[in-house]
Amino acid sequence: MISQPFLGLLALVGMANGHTPHVHMPQRAEPSTATNASSPSASPPLLKRDSDPSDMSWIKRWAAIGDSYTAGIGAGRPLGHRITADEVAIRVPDGLDEVRDNWKCSRYDQAYPKVIEAQFGYHIEKDGGFQYLACSGDRSEQIYQQATNLKGDLDFVTFTAGGNDLCLAGIIKDCIMVPYFKTSACNTVIAKAQENAKNMIKDNVKQILTALNDKMKSKDSIVVVNGYAQFFDATLDNCDHQSWDVFWYLPLGASYQALTISRRNTFNQLVLDINKAIREAVNDAAADSNIKYRVGYSEWDRWVSEEVDAQMCSPSSNGDYPDKNQPDMHFIKPDTHPWFGWQTDVERSELRKRDMDLDEMLSSPRLSASQKRHIKRVKAAMEARESAIERDLYDSVLYKSANPRAAVIHKLDRRAPKPPGCPGDGGSDMTFGLGMPDHIGQNFHPNEAGHVTIASFALAELMDLRSIILGVNSPSCAIKDEFTCFSGTGSKFYVSGNRTNELYEDFCKEVEDKRPKNTINWNYPKSYDEGTPEEFDFVVTTGNDVASFDKDQCVESFKKLINSCDTKDNPMNWKGGGRYIRNEGDYKYELNPRRNNRVWPWPKNPYGRCEGWYKVFFGQYTIEGTGFASFDYGQKSMRPNMDSCYGLGTTAWKFNYHDNPGDHNGYEWKATFNTPIWVRARCFKNNKVVKAAGGWTDGCKGND
């Protein structure tokens, strides 16, 4: 039986293959030679299934090397145990053997290599068919050593490398997780990392690819190098006032640095720079006649940053992790909440004032002597840490080295002089003895969903390269038009089909006139009847680098979307909304009802109540209803019919929609007003006004 996770993985692979602009490097032309059938190394004749790039049975031996993204820190459960080590010895640059077991390397069972392994089957050799040497924290020099320590005859290798060369983990720790030092130092080292990405990463990755040359079985073997993905959504300033640091509970005052939109964009740009360097290294290796295997680059960043709600600081998130409001989150993150959420008492409120430094806290009369002694210790520790961090930052290879490539030369050629390392290398513990255990180190790494995505894009690139080898077209997932009625998914949202039918043609005309011009992948939403039970959105979205718009297709699509859903047992023509994806994802049309507190199940007839009381000089009326007057505050439905019945004598008009109809006997709205006397019988008790407005009441009690 095929498992649901496997089906999901296949679907995502299909999307990756069908909609991701794969980087197809220039492949070297192979000389035409006759195969000697008697040669022991001759390939067997192709079987029919061998022409299918998605058939992986040709892979007998494969490996995963790399850094923490390949080790999968935090994704699922740790492999191995602190005491019982699954020992794998690696020869490190100083010539010694170092044990790199699963526990020490923080390898986890939902890492993308383990996801891929689960899709491979019986064809993998049982003894050493899969070598998993990736280790969290490894830089290119260690990953190079991983490559040289692999046992050969490999059909397939996948890896990530490069992020740690630019001290990415250290920068994240010091600039986000424990961000209590001068902003200038953090910004400086990030800027230097961006600059050095152009000089260091490309050569580092190319050296690793060269080291794999002797490990691959043949010219038809494949290596897939995976990129990284941008961490942050930078749309809103919702993260500026959240606590991302691991010491949120300490009174650190104004030394805290906010995770602003600008800083998020800076971190994202560093990831883009690293990816660009990796891609260039892969392109160079693909064109290098000395590299005998096929090599490709797998970029999953576009999926994370454009296609799904997967990044930190998303407008949909409330700061929790995991967050039910953001089910597609692809990264592990700390719980982050606004500061005021922790002001549970006077003392904490005093300590957490952002504009208050430690010296001001020490002068506060609300703090006890012991609390002030604690603050003094914290202040001394923070000052020592700031000094050490700045010293390390400005003494690191990222900042000080005139030739950052010296890091590569030394690490990959042990005869070269040793340059300074990343900030904090070999220095004192800057986390107050906390260190960086997995529960902290896993932050800003892919979670289980992220690793499924990496695995999917890696497999898609693997199949693309296999297609080139076989001389066949790349497999793709042909996406048909997708039509979804939201009521079929259990949604209890709905609006009037009559109302939406009045508006969709005008909406499509507005999109044609006002849509973003000369822009691809645009989105045009519009809300209607806001604040009423009928509130809804029409939305048009384009994808796959589409810029154009067809008004006639828009009209046709919304007509079908509105009138093809919810047609049975629905005399009042309520519509639960839906989604219509057309042209293989080029266009998406949506009708989204917004009111989540309407009467359920939806009414099959309108209903209401009425009462009118004689007050000598006027009649005083109250009407409540459901299923009519639900979008206009009674202005286009009730009022014209009242005026036509007894003239222009309506005064003291008040009309309100109930937030929760369940608290008002199922009525969605209430209207109160005064009329001329003695109009109840001819206008309300006989339902003349209400019926003309599309509604109904059981008469109208009272004495007017």
UniProtKB/TrEMBL annotation:
Q: What does the UniProt keyword field contain?
A: Hydrolase, Signal
Gene3D superfamilies found in the cross-reference section: SGNH hydrolase
- Extract the ranges annotated as region (Disordered): 21-52
Q: Which residues form the SGNH hydrolase-type esterase domain?
A: 64-277
Q: Name one GO molecular function term.
A: hydrolase activity, acting on ester bonds
Read off the Pfam families from this record. Answer: Fungal_lectin_2, Lipase_GDSL_2
Signal sequence region: 1-18
Name the source's superkingdom.
Answer: Eukaryota
Any keyword Hydrolase? Answer: yes
One annotated GO biological process: lipid metabolic process
Biased composition annotated in UniProt, kind: Low complexity: 29-45
Q: Which InterPro entries does the entry mention?
A: SEST-like, SGNH_hydro, SGNH_hydro_sf
Name of the protein in question: SGNH hydrolase
